[in-house]
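Q: What residues go here?
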């Protein structure tokens, strides 16, 4: 009986600790959504209140009916679509020969690709900026979309590991049926790679939805700014005066930016876990 009571007590303590950690994690999100429904006066009052006394939906209404928000959202979606499509195509094509074909220096090539993951991305900003400036691509989305069509190392790693987990017997059966190497890729491997495609698609979409550094460096005009830059610089979504910070509107933008990644994860979390798990089955 004592042992049973001890186990029960430890379970209760564990649940309490987990609930406490969950509350700490969720609190910032609750504060953002709550503040987006408050007035500026209520946000600045002390002591602060968690729930708004009289919820105000004006910030969301004014935001969603404004042209600037949809312009910035369009730019963000262009970044997500361009990078996701580019990295899925290029990374799968690069990973296929590294996983299924035999040629001299294959392991060396893969080691070099993986080694580039160790290079801090910020160190490449200056040479890339000079290169894209010579191309005349500054103040456009091209410096952030075109590199995706040359494969990202981590995505190549995921595709290669998954391709290596597919039994070689499928290759032999496909060759007997008259399927070449290209047909093997398009008819056998790619259809089996749906978990990896979804995993990389989610990771790419979330990354470019939240990316701030590159747009901040390469984009100057408001025409091509994504939502992250517009939010960080507190761009004038609303004409409230030159030195006025409309915190409730700013919180409304933040709330809208939080929702898509959460919804994307909840809708595809099963594929995300499966894609990462199956990509590490064979070294």
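A:
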């Amino acid at each position: 009986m004592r042992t049973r009571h001890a186990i029960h007590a430890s379970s209760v303590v564990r649940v309490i600790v987990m609930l406490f950690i969950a509350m700490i994690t969720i609190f910032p999100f609750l504060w953002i959504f709550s503040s987006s429904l408050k007035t500026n006066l209520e946000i600045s009052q002390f002591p602060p209140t968690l729930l708004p006394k009289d919820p105000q939906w004006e910030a969301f209404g004014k935001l969603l009916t404004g042209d600037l928000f949809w312009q910035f959202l369009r730019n963000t979606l262009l970044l997500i679509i361009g990078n996701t499509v580019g990295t899925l195509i290029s990374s799968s094509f690069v990973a296929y020969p590294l996983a299924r074909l035999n040629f001299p220096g294959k392991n060396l090539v893969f080691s070099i690709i993986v080694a580039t993951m160790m290079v801090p991305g910020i160190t490449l900003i200056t040479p890339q900026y000079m290169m894209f400036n010579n191309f005349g691509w500054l103040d456009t989305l091209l410096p952030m979309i075109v590199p995706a069509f040359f494969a990202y190392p981590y995505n190549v790693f995921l595709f290669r590991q998954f391709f290596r987990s597919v039994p070689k017997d499928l290759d032999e059966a496909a060759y007997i049926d008259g399927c070449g190497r290209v047909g093997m890729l398009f008819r056998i491997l790619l259809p089996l790679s749906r978990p990896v495609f979804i995993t990389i698609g989610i990771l790419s979409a979330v990354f470019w939805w939240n990316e701030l550094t590159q747009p901040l460096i390469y984009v100057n005009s408001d025409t091509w700014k994504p939502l992250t830059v517009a939010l960080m610089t507190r761009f004038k979504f609303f004409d409230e005066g030159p030195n006025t910070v409309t915190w409730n509107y700013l919180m409304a933008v933040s709330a809208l930016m939080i929702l898509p990644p959460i919804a994307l994860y909840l809708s595809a979390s099963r594929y995300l876990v499966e894609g990462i798990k199956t990509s590490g089955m064979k070294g």
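A: Context that may help when evaluating the design: Residues 76 and 209 are 6 Å apart (CA to CA). The first helix runs from residue 2 to 36.
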